Amino acid sequence: MNSSSSYIRDFKKQPKYGTRLFPFMIAVILLCGLVNVAYAAPSTAVHIVKYAADGTTVLNETTVMYQWMEENLPVQGDGKTHYYHQGPVFVDDKEGQWDVNETTNFKDEGAVKGTDVKDLCNLVGGMNAGDEVMIKAPDGYHIEFGFENVYNPLPRQGPIVVCWYNGEETSVGERQGVGYPPAYFTGMRLVFFADTSVNSEGKHVFGNNDMRTVMPPATIHLFDDLYPSTSGYTVKWIDEVKVYTGGYHGTKGVLAKSLEDKVATPATTTQKSPLLPFTCIGGIGLIVLIMRRHSS
Questions:
Q1: Apex CA 28: angle with CA 26 and CA 32, to 5°?
Q2: pLDDT in tens, 19-40
Q3: Can you tell me the distance from the alpha carbon of 16 to that of 93, in angstroms, rounded to the nearest whole number?
Q4: What is the pTM of this model?
């Protein structure tokens, strides 16, 4: 009995290092979240800039809020009609991967409204044949399009739209949020407003075969360098639209193949902070180091 009482008293006297570390652990967890939020926050404004042929000289630039876009530029979408992109089709048959009849793996982007990229380009002088426009997010993800796809899109592609409103949540797949940013938490987001001419179900789908038909070969998005997938075009949290006179000559489609279309299920598109894993690992490592020192 005496030995048990002594053991209990000695145990109670031990410093509660784990308890003392609770505030620090919570701080690290919050820091991880803040790093992710810094990269994943819904955007409310877009910086639009036009560069000269040297790719660095600024010819014109402006910044507009989504409220200004809605009030001053033509609005695409009605907030009721859903628009879709298509993910990869994992079959061995190369032709089957294009899914000509649009039968599977549609990515519901919501009942969105937004502004045509063409109208945003026109704010800084527009595009001409041979020019390219870059659509960019703050995490470094960007995609480029040529003049014809922006200014003269075929109906099966439709306008390329920077969406700033979602009127109805997706029925399947990735949640978008409803309303304006930040309630529309994947906005502002790029969506192709394709017509229903190809889809047998009457859905507005920009399908993989649509992409093959309307896009130059160099701009076709392939998941894992193998499988066609138009969902690689749906940039989230857009904050910049850049027009390059004579075309963009840097690395194109940064992060496109590493962050999009992880699996064939509808809820796959992710665009996360590249710093988040390192921040969390570093924080956890620091916690372990401190606990080892206290226990030695």
A1: 115
A2: 454 444 444 444 444 444 444 6
A3: 61
A4: 0.75
d(CA 235, CA 15): 51
Q: How confident is the model over 252-278, as pLDDT tens digits?
A: 765 433 333 333 333 333 344 433 444
Domain boundaries, the chain: 2-33+279-295, 43-265
CA distance 87 to 161: 19
DSSP state of 43: P
Sequence-distant (≥ 6) Cβ neighbours of residue 32 within 8 angstroms: 276, 279, 280, 283
210: closest CA among 190, 230, 189? 230
User: Which DSSP helix (H) or strand (E) runs through 189?
Assistant: strand 189-192
**What fold characterizes domain 43-265?**
Sulfite Oxidase; Chain A, domain 2 (3.90.420)
Structure tokens at 64: 């507009």
Measuring CA to CA, which residue among 40, 87, 133 is closest to residue 232? 87
Whether 112 and 165 have beta carbons less than 8 Å apart is answered as yes
CB atoms within 10 A of CB 246: 14
Q: Are strands 227-228 and 222-223 parallel, antiparallel or unpaired?
A: antiparallel
Mean pLDDT along residues 177-186? 97
Give the number of other CB atoms < 10 A from CB of residue 8.
10
- The one-letter code for the residue type at 14 is Q
- Backbone torsions φ then ψ of 70, nearest 5 degrees: -65, -35
Residue with tokens 């306008």: 159
